[in-house]
């Protein structure tokens, strides 16, 4: 049976990317690695839409967020944070772990923060050092559509903007330089269709100036100034990188360049739209507000009486479709689908059909024909 990962990460990985990982090991202090590293950095700048410095870190996306926080936040620093999901909660914990003071903007799960809310928080906390937020909340399927406006606001106020873009980079619009994002973090295993294990991070000149003025550093392994020094002097990393994953990322980025960033984003949008239309045709309710719905993570409320484990188990064992359940207080209440990476029209259609058939097996009257027709019409 074919295994189709329709998860919000990790995603299906193309054969080209998997094959790249079979390349022989090289000296990560030698010329072959230097060339590989340069290629990755150049193509990452294209994806981030930035001229700033970009690095690939050997760690998970959470490690990348910790790196961002630990490099600019000191004990006592105020950080304004919209909190409306598991990953924004996790980001806040990382701020607290270095002694930072979190100024929370509470957001209902399924809704997105508005620029007016951030402005109000800044007006009340003029000594805030940074605004930190999750652009695409993976636990709720919510995208902060006001991110550009928030970037303009923080830039005018002289406040750093730290963004977790782990589940959206390469799958939706994200212009790091134009939107004045100072530190932006993503992960390899989402829209880039690469295996897990690498965090990707861009750093602005404003962020470098903050780091250079600090008297102490909060992290040894995640020291961005060391990353900058090693890359500028030697095209290397401070510590041993995951060479096989660098090969995979290099190939995944080549494939993205071949497709084109705009076309990849449009493919993600088309697939997400088809999924939303299909679920509406099935009479299922969606968690996220319409204006905040993500193009990479679709969150659907369970109909009354549907058991999460049974539902996802049938999809997995009988149809080979792997989807995710809810997280945190949404555990058992929603299921989530990743529309990311190599996702295609065929992937969407087989997923929609399988979900409708599964709902029928669980005693609901779901029209397979209506769901598939709605998805096809959305693609048209």
Characterize the structure shown.
- Helix content is 44%, strand content 16%.
- The protein has helices at residues 15-20, 31-48, 61-72, 86-97, 115-124, 147-157, 205-213, 224-234, 243-259, 261-281, 308-319, 345-361, 368-379, and strands at residues 4-5, 53-58, 78-83, 101-106, 130-134, 136-137, 142-143, 160-164, 183-187, 198-203, 297-301, 321-322, 324-325, 334-338.
- It has a seven-stranded mixed β-sheet, with helices on both faces.
- The chain is globular.
Keywords:
three-stranded antiparallel sheet; seven-stranded mixed sheet; 380 residues; alpha/beta; 2 domains; 14 strands; Aspartate Aminotransferase, domain 2; 13 helices; 44% helix; Aspartate Aminotransferase, domain 1
- Total number of domains: 2
Text of the CATH class of the largest domain? Alpha Beta
Mean pLDDT level = 97
CATH level-two architecture of the largest domain: 3-Layer(aba) Sandwich
What composes the largest sheet?
Answer: 7 strands, mixed
Helix content: 40-55%
Strand content: 15-25%
Low-pLDDT stretches: none
Determine Rg (CA atoms, Å).
21 Å
What is the helix/strand order?
EHHEHEHEHEEEHEEEHHHHEHEEEHH
Q: Strand pairing plus helix content: what structural class?
A: alpha/beta
Ends apart, CA distance between termini: 29 Å
User: What fold name goes in the CATH topology slot of the largest domain?
Assistant: Aspartate Aminotransferase, domain 2
Strand order of the largest sheet: 2-10-9-8-5-3-4
Number of helices: 13
